[in-house]
Design brief:
With 275 residues, the chain is mostly helical. Helices cover 76% and strands 0% of the residues.
Length: 275
């Protein structure tokens, strides 16, 4: 069996796990006990990230074309998928195995923060791959995306733009310094990740390969998921398996799909599409 056929099997597994996750997610909304059924949903849709992670690790070294800047991009892909897998299963471990709420911060939060590092590695490698010069206009565009994302986050999680002038919404004197630092960093990471995703779509133009395109979409979905999670948590209306987990599931599908399609395109030597 050739490599493409083996990768296609992983694609089949990915779509199968995603369909099962969607069906289970629908079931949760009608469940009488969404807390535990929702926690098991996290276990199930974390498999979506795991499929992409395992497939990428198995075949990255078996395809000679993945080297240099492309290898760095692929490592960024894998870092995001692996970090999300570790974070989600850490959360599920505390809830299901230990029967307690996951502490904050924990290994899960540390793992989730590595997604921003993976996204940054992808962005820097894209500049090198396409030989894109960092012009003043490009820097302004990136910070424009970052500021717009930051304002959106303040608007959603705070009481509007006024928070920019009346105090940072995440700082709580009743919490420890470590918790406040993680809250602050999460807000920064969300804005940064959104800016990275938009910049990737912007700078690659019409020469963006499929894996990179879907990875970019995945980063935007993960930002939306994180924002919904933070908002619903602050309003104390969150439960396992609700809409934010649905968005995390969608993000995982795009991350893993990006990994699988990148592997296939390297084998088939078809790395560019029009968008």
């Amino acid at each position: 069996m050739d490599i493409v056929s083996k990768i296609n099997k992983w694609a089949t597994i990915l779509f199968t796990v995603t369909i099962v996750s969607i069906i289970y997610n629908i079931y949760i909304y009608f469940s009488k006990d969404p807390y535990y059924t929702g926690t098991f949903f996290i276990v199930i849709y974390a498999l979506i990230y795991l499929v992409g992670s395992v497939c990428g690790l198995l075949y990255m070294k078996k395809i000679p074309g993945i080297r240099g800047n492309m290898k760095s991009i692929f490592i960024g892909f894998l870092m995001n998928a692996i970090a999300m897998t570790i974070g989600l299963y850490t959360f599920a471990y505390y809830t299901i195995i230990k029967g307690v709420e996951s502490p904050y911060p924990s290994l899960a939060e540390i793992a989730f923060l590595f997604t921003s590092i993976g996204s940054f590695i992808v962005l820097v490698s894209i500049f090198r791959l396409y030989k894109i010069q960092i012009t003043k206009r490009l820097v302004i565009e990136f910070f424009g995306y970052f500021i717009l994302s930051s304002l959106t986050i303040f608007w959603i999680l705070g009481d509007g733009i006024g928070y920019l002038f009346t105090g940072f919404p995440y700082i709580d004197e009743g919490q420890s310094l470590l918790v406040n630092l993680f809250d602050f960093y999460y807000a920064f990471v969300d804005a940064f990740t959104a800016a990275v995703g938009l910049t990737i779509l912007r700078v690659a133009g019409g020469k963006i390969f499929r894996g990179l395109f879907y990875f970019s979409i995945g980063t935007l979905f993960i930002v939306v998921a994180d924002l919904i999670f933070s908002y619903r948590l602050s309003e104390e209306i969150i439960w396992n398996g609700d809409i934010n987990d649905t968005f995390f599931m969608i993000s995982g599908f795009f991350f893993s799909l990006g990994i699988i399609l990148t592997l296939k395109d390297f084998v088939n030597k078809n790395l560019e599409i029009k968008i």
